[in-house]
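re the bet — no i am not wrong, look at it urself. input seq straight from the record:
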Amino acid sequence: MGMFDGLLGGIVGAGMVSVVNNILEQHGGVQGVVNQFEQNGLGATVRSWVATGPNQPIAPADVQKTLGPELLQQLSQKSGMPVEELAQKLAHLLPQAVDKLTPDGTLPKA
């Protein structure tokens, strides 16, 4: 389990902590996740999650496109959740998780 488990558990629920931690690990932390969304044309959206204001929503299709089918399939198998349901949950949870992991509006130092 990663160092964010306690923080994330309260946000995403116990069942999704390992999924979110896996995404963070696969991308080298919060900075890597933010970079991945920026590279997929979602910079304004992901920056709103880091900033101290309201979080912009993201569509499940954008989560799928950004994280890629391979990673989502792996996470689907680990979680026992269909890919579409997982993308839907992540579209709801990732903005909250990134927001909570960047409480002062800046990315943690890697």
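see?? Confidence is low (pLDDT under 50) at residues 1-9. told u. also DSSP finds seven helices and no strands in the chain. so pay up
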